[in-house]
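Students often ask what a holo structure prediction actually looks like on paper. The answer is less mysterious than it sounds. You provide the chain, you provide the ligand, and the output is a string of C-alpha cells encoding the 3D arrangement of the protein together with zinc ion.
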Amino acid sequence: MSYDCPNCGASGLDVFYEAGEIPVHSCIMLNRREDALAFPRRALTLGACPQCAFISNILFDSSVQAYTAGYEEQQSFSPRFRTFQTEMIGDLIRTYDLHHKDVIEIGCGKGDFLVELCETGKNRGIGIDPTSDPERLEGPGGERVRFLKELYGPQHADLPADFVCCRHTLEHIPATHEFVGMIREVIGDRRDVVVFFEVPAVERVLEEEAFWDVYYEHCSYFSLGSLAHVFRRNRFDIIELRKDFDEQYLLIVVRPVSSVRKTERANEDDISKIADGVATFREGVRRTIDGWRDRLTALKRQDRCVAVWGSGSKCVSFLSAMGPELKIDAIVDINSFRHGKWLAGIGRQVEAPESLVGYAPDLVVVMNPIYLDEIQRHLDSMGISAEVTAV
Ligand SMILES: [Zn+2]
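The corresponding C-alpha cells follow.
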C-alpha cells in the first residue's frame, strides 16, 4: 500500500521503522498502576517522504489521542530549560518589537512561556490548549494572560493577534499541511502578523538512532526543509529558520503573504541529508535497542541498581523498547506533579530525585544529554556517586 505525504502531498512514503504497539500517550500520568498497565496501545510505523523529507507515522490514529487533565509536559522545572526559554523570549521581544502587543499561543500547555513573554514585554496573551491549567501559574504575568481550554480552530479567527506562536505542538498533528493552512486562513488578509513555530528536529534522531525520541504522540517529524516547505506551501514567507537547544529544536518565524517568494534558504536543502539519516536509522536502530537492553540486563544480572532520570515521553519510549522483562529500579523526575504517578504503558511509579539516596544507584541513565551537568550537580549535592550516562 502506498501512503501520501501529509506535508507536501507527494505519494510513496518510504517505510523504514516499525516500533510495534506502543502506548498512545506518554505524558498522561495515571493514578493507579492497573490503569497505567491497561493504557491503550497502537502501532507506530514511520514513513519518509522522498520529496520534502517529512517523516510521519503512517498508521497514526488520532481518535485515540486525548489531551486532557493529567497531561504533564512541563519542562520549565529544569534551570537549563528555563535559561533557554528566557533567552528565546528576550530575542523574540527584541527582534519583533513585542511590547504591548496581542499574543496567541496555540498549544500553550501550562502557559509558562506565554506568561513570561507577556510579563517581560507587557503583552496581552491568550493561550489555547485543552490541557492548560491557569491555577498553576504564579506571579503577576498571570493577569496578562487568559486561557481557552480547547483545541485551536477557525472559531478563533476573531481573536486579536500581532504574534501567533505554537511550540512543540505541530509534531502532534498528523495533517500538517491542513493545520498550517487553517492558521493561514484564520489570519486572512492581515499582513503584519508574525508567526513563530518550534518543533523537535528529526535530523539528530535519525543520525543517533534515537529510538527514545520516536513515540506515538509524535506523529510528525520535521527537518528544516520539510518545516519550511509546509509554510511556503501555505503562503507564508520565511523570516527566520534555524536550530537551537543543542540542535534538538527547529525554530521558524514567518509572515503571511499573498504569493510566496521562491528563493529558498541554504539550510532548507536537506532532502539528501535526511535520506542518509533514514538509511542510518533503518540499518542500525535494532542494534542500538539491543545494545541498551543487553547493557542494562547485564547490570541487573550482577544485582546492580539502575535508575532512569527523566520520566517524560523519551522515558516511556525507551522503556517500551526495552520490554517488560527489564526491571529498572527507580524512575525519577524533577517535575513534582509527576511524583507518585504511574507511567502510561510502563506501569512504573515516578519518584522524586531525592529518593535515589535510598536506592544508591550504580548507574543513572539520563533521558536527555542536555541536562547531564544539571543532573550531575543534583546527584553530587545528594552525595550519590553513581555512573551517569545519557541516552
Ligand atoms: Zn512530503
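The mean pLDDT is 93.
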